[in-house]
Amino acid sequence: MSLDEIIKQVESYDCKLVEITGGEPLLQKEVPELALRLLSKNQTVLIETSGEQDISVLDKRVIKIMDLKCPGSGESHQNRWENLEHLTPEDEVKFVIKDRQDYEWSREVIKKHSLEDRLRVLFSPVWDNLDLKDLAKWILQDKLNVRYQLQLHKFIWSPETKGV
Question: How far apart are the C-alpha atoms of 68 and 81, rounded to whole Å?
């Protein structure tokens, strides 16, 4: 689809909130322009990003939901730490936590970068790997100012369902 076709499709929904996600959207060179055009039409634009691409290419008004990959993912070497400098109080950082080691790593990253004071922090358990109650208990014990996020689509539909 062209950018014009995407804009037309979005306009047909008559909504004011657009979230760009799916894989890593910033691998698509047109995404910053798409976001800018949506913003110019008074849309609220969110982008979910793995955090491995440069987010400074996005207009400051775009709300970024950026992952910081925990060691348990095998992808923590991909974290682009300089992206933290480009986040605003409207943005979010998400940690997908596999086990206690990932939790402790995340807690230290939050502290080191003063994330709780700067923006919203999300903790999400790896599906079918970490007991939901354990993560909730650790957050409460440490009095972390984070939002506990579950992958609701996996509760509503089968975890294997794609495109929801």
Answer: 9
Question: What is the pTM assigned to this prediction?
Answer: 0.89
Place of tokens 């909730």: 136
CA–CA separation, 147 and 94 (whole Å): 9
User: Has residue 163 got a pLDDT over 70?
Assistant: no
Closest C-alpha to 52, from 85, 18, 76, 32: 76
pLDDT in tens, 13-41: 989 999 998 889 999 999 999 999 999 99
